[in-house]
Amino acid sequence: MTLTELRQETIDRLVLQFSERASQLDDEFQFPDRNLDELIDCGLHVANMPKQDGGLGYRFEETVTLLTHISKGCASTGLIMAMHYYSLGAFSEVLTSEQQAAVFDDIRRSGELIASVSDPNVIFIYQRKQMDGIPTITAEKTDGGYLVSGTKFTVTGAPRIKYLPIYCQYAPSSCTSQYGMTALLMTLPSEGAAIEESWNYSGMRASMSHHIHFDQVFIPDHQLIGREGYAIEDTENLIYWFRLAVTAVYFGIAKAAYEHALGMTYKRIDRISKKKSAFLPGQQFRIADMKIKLDVAHNQLMACAQQADQEKKQNHYSSDLYTKTLITKHFVTQAAEEIVQLASQVEGFSSLQQGSLLERLSRDVKAAKFHPPSEDLLKEVIAKKELGIIPLKNRWV
Protein backbone atom coordinates (compact mmCIF):
# COMPACT_ATOMS: atom_id res chain seq x y z
CA MET A 1 0.00 0.00 0.00
CA THR A 2 1.33 3.44 -0.92
CA LEU A 3 0.62 6.86 0.52
CA THR A 4 -1.62 7.50 -2.50
CA GLU A 5 -3.71 4.41 -1.73
CA LEU A 6 -4.11 5.66 1.82
CA ARG A 7 -5.75 8.85 0.58
CA GLN A 8 -3.03 11.44 0.22
CA GLU A 9 -5.76 14.04 0.73
CA THR A 10 -6.27 12.79 4.29
CA ILE A 11 -2.57 13.07 5.06
CA ASP A 12 -2.41 16.56 3.54
CA ARG A 13 -5.38 17.60 5.68
CA LEU A 14 -3.73 16.27 8.82
CA VAL A 15 -0.46 18.03 8.03
CA LEU A 16 -2.28 21.33 7.55
CA GLN A 17 -4.08 20.90 10.88
CA PHE A 18 -0.84 19.99 12.62
CA SER A 19 0.88 23.09 11.23
CA GLU A 20 -1.96 25.29 12.46
CA ARG A 21 -1.60 23.90 16.00
CA ALA A 22 2.19 23.65 16.17
CA SER A 23 2.84 27.22 17.28
CA GLN A 24 0.37 27.01 20.16
CA LEU A 25 1.70 23.63 21.28
CA ASP A 26 5.21 25.03 21.33
CA ASP A 27 4.28 28.32 22.95
CA GLU A 28 2.14 26.77 25.68
CA PHE A 29 4.36 23.72 26.17
CA GLN A 30 1.45 21.37 25.41
CA PHE A 31 1.55 17.71 24.40
CA PRO A 32 0.10 17.00 20.90
CA ASP A 33 -2.63 14.62 22.07
CA ARG A 34 -5.05 15.78 19.40
CA ASN A 35 -2.52 15.21 16.61
CA LEU A 36 -1.81 11.70 17.85
CA ASP A 37 -5.53 10.94 18.22
CA GLU A 38 -6.17 11.99 14.62
CA LEU A 39 -3.32 9.83 13.32
CA ILE A 40 -4.69 6.89 15.29
CA ASP A 41 -8.25 7.53 14.08
CA CYS A 42 -6.93 7.31 10.50
CA GLY A 43 -5.12 4.06 11.27
CA LEU A 44 -1.74 5.65 10.68
CA HIS A 45 -0.36 4.50 14.03
CA VAL A 46 0.05 1.06 12.43
CA ALA A 47 1.48 2.33 9.14
CA ASN A 48 4.56 0.11 9.20
CA MET A 49 3.09 -2.73 11.22
CA PRO A 50 3.17 -5.94 9.14
CA LYS A 51 -0.05 -6.62 7.25
CA GLN A 52 -0.42 -10.03 8.87
CA ASP A 53 -0.69 -8.21 12.20
CA GLY A 54 -3.36 -5.84 10.92
CA GLY A 55 -1.07 -2.99 9.89
CA LEU A 56 -0.59 -1.21 6.58
CA GLY A 57 2.73 -2.93 5.90
CA TYR A 58 4.71 0.20 5.06
CA ARG A 59 8.35 -0.45 4.33
CA PHE A 60 11.28 1.86 5.06
CA GLU A 61 10.70 4.14 2.08
CA GLU A 62 6.98 4.59 2.68
CA THR A 63 7.49 5.11 6.41
CA VAL A 64 10.15 7.75 5.81
CA THR A 65 7.85 9.54 3.36
CA LEU A 66 4.99 9.53 5.87
CA LEU A 67 7.21 10.83 8.67
CA THR A 68 8.40 13.63 6.41
CA HIS A 69 4.80 14.74 5.89
CA ILE A 70 3.92 14.56 9.59
CA SER A 71 7.07 16.42 10.65
CA LYS A 72 6.48 19.17 8.09
CA GLY A 73 3.30 19.94 9.98
CA CYS A 74 4.58 19.45 13.55
CA ALA A 75 8.12 18.36 14.31
CA SER A 76 7.33 17.21 17.84
CA THR A 77 4.50 15.00 16.60
CA GLY A 78 6.83 13.67 13.92
CA LEU A 79 9.50 12.83 16.50
CA ILE A 80 7.00 10.97 18.69
CA MET A 81 5.79 8.96 15.71
CA ALA A 82 9.36 8.36 14.51
CA MET A 83 10.15 6.57 17.77
CA HIS A 84 6.90 4.63 17.56
CA TYR A 85 7.41 3.63 13.92
CA TYR A 86 11.04 2.73 14.43
CA SER A 87 10.13 0.38 17.28
CA LEU A 88 7.19 -1.10 15.36
CA GLY A 89 9.33 -1.79 12.32
CA ALA A 90 12.36 -3.05 14.18
CA PHE A 91 10.63 -5.22 16.77
CA SER A 92 8.58 -6.96 14.10
CA GLU A 93 11.92 -8.64 13.31
CA VAL A 94 12.80 -9.39 16.94
CA LEU A 95 9.74 -10.30 19.02
CA THR A 96 8.47 -13.86 19.21
CA SER A 97 5.27 -14.61 17.32
CA GLU A 98 3.37 -14.75 20.62
CA GLN A 99 4.75 -11.41 21.80
CA GLN A 100 4.10 -9.81 18.45
CA ALA A 101 0.52 -11.04 18.31
CA ALA A 102 -0.30 -9.72 21.79
CA VAL A 103 1.54 -6.39 21.63
CA PHE A 104 0.73 -5.46 18.06
CA ASP A 105 -2.93 -6.39 18.44
CA ASP A 106 -3.21 -4.09 21.46
CA ILE A 107 -1.43 -1.26 19.64
CA ARG A 108 -3.74 -1.66 16.64
CA ARG A 109 -7.01 -2.01 18.53
CA SER A 110 -6.41 0.40 21.40
CA GLY A 111 -4.26 3.01 19.68
CA GLU A 112 -1.31 2.51 22.00
CA LEU A 113 2.20 3.79 21.37
CA ILE A 114 5.57 2.08 21.80
CA ALA A 115 8.69 4.01 22.77
CA SER A 116 12.23 3.89 21.50
CA VAL A 117 14.52 1.42 23.25
CA SER A 118 17.28 4.09 23.21
CA ASP A 119 20.89 3.80 22.13
CA PRO A 120 22.91 1.42 24.37
CA ASN A 121 26.09 3.45 23.72
CA VAL A 122 28.30 0.39 23.17
CA ILE A 123 29.88 1.05 19.75
CA PHE A 124 33.42 0.90 21.11
CA ILE A 125 32.92 -1.64 23.88
CA TYR A 126 35.15 -4.69 23.51
CA GLN A 127 35.17 -6.27 26.97
CA ARG A 128 32.51 -6.79 29.66
CA LYS A 129 34.47 -4.77 32.21
CA GLN A 130 34.17 -1.69 30.00
CA MET A 131 30.39 -1.75 30.56
CA ASP A 132 30.72 -0.55 34.15
CA GLY A 133 28.75 2.65 34.58
CA ILE A 134 27.27 2.65 31.06
CA PRO A 135 23.81 1.04 31.62
CA THR A 136 21.43 3.28 33.56
CA ILE A 137 19.01 0.43 34.27
CA THR A 138 19.69 -2.81 36.14
CA ALA A 139 17.65 -5.98 36.40
CA GLU A 140 17.73 -8.89 38.80
CA LYS A 141 16.08 -12.26 38.34
CA THR A 142 13.17 -13.14 40.57
CA ASP A 143 10.39 -15.71 40.55
CA GLY A 144 8.48 -15.39 37.30
CA GLY A 145 10.39 -12.45 35.94
CA TYR A 146 12.72 -9.55 36.65
CA LEU A 147 12.94 -6.61 39.05
CA VAL A 148 14.10 -3.49 37.26
CA SER A 149 15.58 -0.32 38.77
CA GLY A 150 17.20 2.79 37.33
CA THR A 151 16.27 5.53 34.87
CA LYS A 152 15.41 5.65 31.19
CA PHE A 153 16.27 9.14 30.02
CA THR A 154 14.43 11.30 27.48
CA VAL A 155 11.52 9.04 26.54
CA THR A 156 9.93 10.87 23.61
CA GLY A 157 6.16 11.03 23.94
CA ALA A 158 6.33 9.82 27.55
CA PRO A 159 2.76 10.87 28.51
CA ARG A 160 1.23 8.49 25.91
CA ILE A 161 3.62 5.54 26.01
CA LYS A 162 2.28 2.13 27.01
CA TYR A 163 5.04 -0.15 25.75
CA LEU A 164 8.53 0.74 26.89
CA PRO A 165 11.43 -1.43 25.65
CA ILE A 166 14.53 -1.12 27.82
CA TYR A 167 18.12 -2.35 27.94
CA CYS A 168 19.15 -3.61 31.39
CA GLN A 169 22.44 -4.62 32.92
CA TYR A 170 21.83 -8.29 33.58
CA ALA A 171 23.28 -11.52 32.29
CA PRO A 172 23.27 -15.11 33.58
CA SER A 173 26.63 -16.57 34.56
CA SER A 174 26.71 -18.67 31.40
CA CYS A 175 26.50 -15.60 29.13
CA THR A 176 29.61 -15.00 27.01
CA SER A 177 28.53 -11.70 25.46
CA GLN A 178 30.98 -8.83 25.75
CA TYR A 179 28.05 -6.61 26.72
CA GLY A 180 25.97 -8.71 29.11
CA MET A 181 22.76 -6.74 28.63
CA THR A 182 19.17 -7.95 28.58
CA ALA A 183 16.23 -6.35 26.77
CA LEU A 184 12.80 -6.29 28.40
CA LEU A 185 9.41 -4.86 27.39
CA MET A 186 7.80 -2.90 30.20
CA THR A 187 4.17 -1.81 30.12
CA LEU A 188 3.06 1.49 31.59
CA PRO A 189 1.69 2.30 34.04
CA SER A 190 3.53 -0.16 36.29
CA GLU A 191 3.99 -0.12 40.03
CA GLY A 192 7.37 1.43 40.79
CA ALA A 193 7.60 3.32 37.48
CA ALA A 194 7.32 7.11 37.66
CA ILE A 195 7.51 9.78 34.96
CA GLU A 196 9.56 12.82 35.92
CA GLU A 197 8.37 15.90 34.03
CA SER A 198 11.95 16.77 33.15
CA TRP A 199 11.62 17.99 29.56
CA ASN A 200 12.33 21.73 29.58
CA TYR A 201 14.29 22.33 26.40
CA SER A 202 13.87 24.93 23.68
CA GLY A 203 13.71 22.39 20.83
CA MET A 204 10.95 19.84 20.25
CA ARG A 205 9.11 21.31 23.22
CA ALA A 206 5.83 19.48 22.62
CA SER A 207 7.50 16.06 22.45
CA MET A 208 7.56 15.84 26.26
CA SER A 209 10.63 13.61 26.22
CA HIS A 210 10.62 13.05 29.97
CA HIS A 211 12.77 10.77 32.13
CA ILE A 212 11.13 7.64 33.57
CA HIS A 213 12.42 6.20 36.85
CA PHE A 214 12.11 2.58 37.94
CA ASP A 215 12.16 1.27 41.50
CA GLN A 216 11.94 -2.52 41.61
CA VAL A 217 9.46 -2.68 38.73
CA PHE A 218 8.39 -6.25 38.04
CA ILE A 219 8.51 -7.42 34.41
CA PRO A 220 7.28 -10.99 33.76
CA ASP A 221 9.38 -13.59 31.96
CA HIS A 222 7.21 -13.53 28.85
CA GLN A 223 8.26 -9.91 28.23
CA LEU A 224 11.90 -10.81 27.74
CA ILE A 225 13.11 -9.64 24.31
CA GLY A 226 15.55 -12.07 22.74
CA ARG A 227 17.99 -13.90 25.02
CA GLU A 228 19.17 -13.04 28.50
CA GLY A 229 22.49 -11.23 28.27
CA TYR A 230 22.46 -10.95 24.48
CA ALA A 231 20.25 -7.89 23.99
CA ILE A 232 22.77 -6.02 21.84
CA GLU A 233 23.37 -8.96 19.54
CA ASP A 234 19.65 -9.81 19.26
CA THR A 235 18.51 -6.25 18.51
CA GLU A 236 21.35 -4.99 16.33
CA ASN A 237 19.02 -4.33 13.39
CA LEU A 238 17.10 -1.66 15.29
CA ILE A 239 19.61 1.00 14.28
CA TYR A 240 18.49 1.03 10.64
CA TRP A 241 14.90 1.88 11.49
CA PHE A 242 16.07 4.39 14.10
CA ARG A 243 18.46 6.34 11.90
CA LEU A 244 16.11 6.58 8.94
CA ALA A 245 13.03 7.44 11.01
CA VAL A 246 14.79 10.18 12.95
CA THR A 247 16.41 11.61 9.82
CA ALA A 248 13.00 11.83 8.13
CA VAL A 249 11.79 14.14 10.91
CA TYR A 250 14.48 16.70 10.18
CA PHE A 251 13.95 16.45 6.45
CA GLY A 252 10.31 17.32 7.15
CA ILE A 253 11.49 20.41 9.03
CA ALA A 254 13.62 21.37 6.02
CA LYS A 255 10.63 21.05 3.69
CA ALA A 256 8.51 23.25 5.94
CA ALA A 257 11.23 25.92 6.00
CA TYR A 258 11.71 25.81 2.22
CA GLU A 259 8.02 26.08 1.42
CA HIS A 260 7.67 28.97 3.86
CA ALA A 261 10.61 30.77 2.26
CA LEU A 262 9.12 30.33 -1.22
CA GLY A 263 5.90 31.92 -0.06
CA MET A 264 7.71 34.81 1.65
CA THR A 265 9.53 35.84 -1.53
CA TYR A 266 6.20 36.78 -3.13
CA LYS A 267 4.72 38.37 0.00
CA ARG A 268 7.58 40.64 0.96
CA ILE A 269 8.25 43.90 -0.93
CA ASP A 270 11.79 45.26 -1.03
CA ARG A 271 11.74 48.77 0.44
CA ILE A 272 14.29 50.19 -1.99
CA SER A 273 13.35 48.64 -5.35
CA LYS A 274 9.64 48.38 -4.47
CA LYS A 275 9.66 44.93 -6.07
CA LYS A 276 8.67 41.60 -4.63
CA SER A 277 11.76 40.02 -3.12
CA ALA A 278 11.38 37.05 -5.51
CA PHE A 279 12.83 39.26 -8.24
CA LEU A 280 16.00 40.11 -6.28
CA PRO A 281 19.17 38.14 -7.19
CA GLY A 282 20.18 37.59 -3.57
CA GLN A 283 16.85 35.94 -2.75
CA GLN A 284 16.98 33.87 -5.92
CA PHE A 285 20.44 32.59 -4.99
CA ARG A 286 19.20 31.60 -1.53
CA ILE A 287 16.19 29.79 -2.97
CA ALA A 288 18.48 27.96 -5.40
CA ASP A 289 20.84 26.96 -2.57
CA MET A 290 17.91 25.66 -0.54
CA LYS A 291 16.47 23.74 -3.47
CA ILE A 292 19.82 22.08 -4.20
CA LYS A 293 20.31 21.06 -0.59
CA LEU A 294 16.72 19.85 -0.26
CA ASP A 295 16.76 17.71 -3.40
CA VAL A 296 20.17 16.16 -2.71
CA ALA A 297 19.12 15.40 0.88
CA HIS A 298 15.87 13.84 -0.37
CA ASN A 299 17.72 11.67 -2.87
CA GLN A 300 20.16 10.52 -0.20
CA LEU A 301 17.38 9.70 2.24
CA MET A 302 15.27 7.83 -0.32
CA ALA A 303 18.20 5.89 -1.75
CA CYS A 304 19.19 4.75 1.72
CA ALA A 305 15.59 3.76 2.55
CA GLN A 306 15.29 1.84 -0.72
CA GLN A 307 18.51 -0.05 0.01
CA ALA A 308 17.20 -0.89 3.48
CA ASP A 309 13.99 -2.25 1.92
CA GLN A 310 15.96 -4.42 -0.49
CA GLU A 311 18.20 -5.80 2.23
CA LYS A 312 15.26 -6.42 4.57
CA LYS A 313 13.74 -8.63 1.87
CA GLN A 314 17.00 -10.60 1.81
CA ASN A 315 16.92 -10.83 5.62
CA HIS A 316 20.42 -9.37 5.86
CA TYR A 317 21.57 -5.82 6.54
CA SER A 318 25.01 -5.14 5.10
CA SER A 319 28.02 -3.26 6.42
CA ASP A 320 27.54 -0.88 3.50
CA LEU A 321 24.02 0.00 4.71
CA TYR A 322 25.37 0.55 8.23
CA THR A 323 27.73 3.19 6.88
CA LYS A 324 25.13 4.72 4.56
CA THR A 325 22.65 5.24 7.37
CA LEU A 326 25.32 7.13 9.29
CA ILE A 327 26.16 9.23 6.23
CA THR A 328 22.47 9.87 5.59
CA LYS A 329 21.81 10.98 9.16
CA HIS A 330 24.76 13.37 9.06
CA PHE A 331 24.17 14.80 5.59
CA VAL A 332 20.39 15.23 5.74
CA THR A 333 20.27 16.73 9.23
CA GLN A 334 23.11 19.12 8.44
CA ALA A 335 21.36 20.16 5.23
CA ALA A 336 18.14 20.69 7.18
CA GLU A 337 19.82 23.09 9.57
CA GLU A 338 21.40 24.99 6.67
CA ILE A 339 18.04 25.22 4.87
CA VAL A 340 16.36 26.65 7.96
CA GLN A 341 19.15 29.25 8.25
CA LEU A 342 18.77 30.21 4.58
CA ALA A 343 15.00 30.46 4.98
CA SER A 344 15.54 32.87 7.87
CA GLN A 345 17.71 35.03 5.61
CA VAL A 346 14.96 35.04 2.99
CA GLU A 347 12.35 36.18 5.50
CA GLY A 348 14.63 38.61 7.25
CA PHE A 349 14.56 40.07 10.75
CA SER A 350 10.99 38.94 11.43
CA SER A 351 12.16 35.32 11.36
CA LEU A 352 13.60 35.96 14.83
CA GLN A 353 10.20 36.91 16.21
CA GLN A 354 9.50 34.65 19.16
CA GLY A 355 6.84 32.12 18.21
CA SER A 356 7.23 32.59 14.47
CA LEU A 357 7.49 29.51 12.26
CA LEU A 358 11.19 29.85 11.45
CA GLU A 359 12.11 30.78 15.02
CA ARG A 360 10.48 27.53 16.16
CA LEU A 361 11.99 25.45 13.35
CA SER A 362 15.44 26.86 14.10
CA ARG A 363 15.10 25.52 17.66
CA ASP A 364 13.65 22.18 16.61
CA VAL A 365 16.22 21.44 13.91
CA LYS A 366 19.10 21.86 16.37
CA ALA A 367 17.93 18.75 18.23
CA ALA A 368 19.21 16.64 15.33
CA LYS A 369 22.77 16.87 16.65
CA PHE A 370 21.84 15.12 19.86
CA HIS A 371 20.37 11.92 18.43
CA PRO A 372 23.00 9.20 18.72
CA PRO A 373 25.57 8.74 17.54
CA SER A 374 27.09 12.19 18.08
CA GLU A 375 28.78 13.86 15.12
CA ASP A 376 32.28 13.06 16.42
CA LEU A 377 31.45 9.41 17.04
CA LEU A 378 29.62 9.09 13.72
CA LYS A 379 32.62 10.35 11.79
CA GLU A 380 35.00 8.21 13.81
CA VAL A 381 33.00 5.07 12.99
CA ILE A 382 32.86 5.91 9.27
CA ALA A 383 36.58 6.70 9.11
CA LYS A 384 37.65 3.58 10.98
CA LYS A 385 35.56 1.43 8.63
CA GLU A 386 36.99 3.14 5.56
CA LEU A 387 40.56 2.90 6.84
CA GLY A 388 40.17 -0.72 7.90
CA ILE A 389 41.05 0.08 11.50
CA ILE A 390 39.51 -2.54 13.78
CA PRO A 391 40.55 -1.93 17.40
CA LEU A 392 40.31 -5.15 19.37
CA LYS A 393 40.97 -3.87 22.87
CA ASN A 394 41.29 -0.10 22.82
CA ARG A 395 39.31 2.54 20.98
CA TRP A 396 42.40 4.55 20.11
CA VAL A 397 45.22 2.44 18.68
TrEMBL record:
One of its GO terms (molecular function) is acyl-CoA dehydrogenase activity. Residues 17-102 form the Acyl-CoA dehydrogenase/oxidase N-terminal domain. Keywords: Oxidoreductase. The keyword Plastid does not apply. InterPro entries: Acyl-CoA_DH_C, Acyl-CoA_Oxase/DH_mid-dom_sf, AcylCo_DH-like_C, AcylCoA_DH/ox_N, AcylCoA_DH/ox_N_sf, AcylCoA_DH/oxidase_NM_dom_sf. CDD domains: ACAD. The keyword Oxidoreductase applies. Residues 246-371 form the Acyl-CoA dehydrogenase C-terminal domain. This is Acyl-CoA dehydrogenase. It comes from Bacillus safensis.
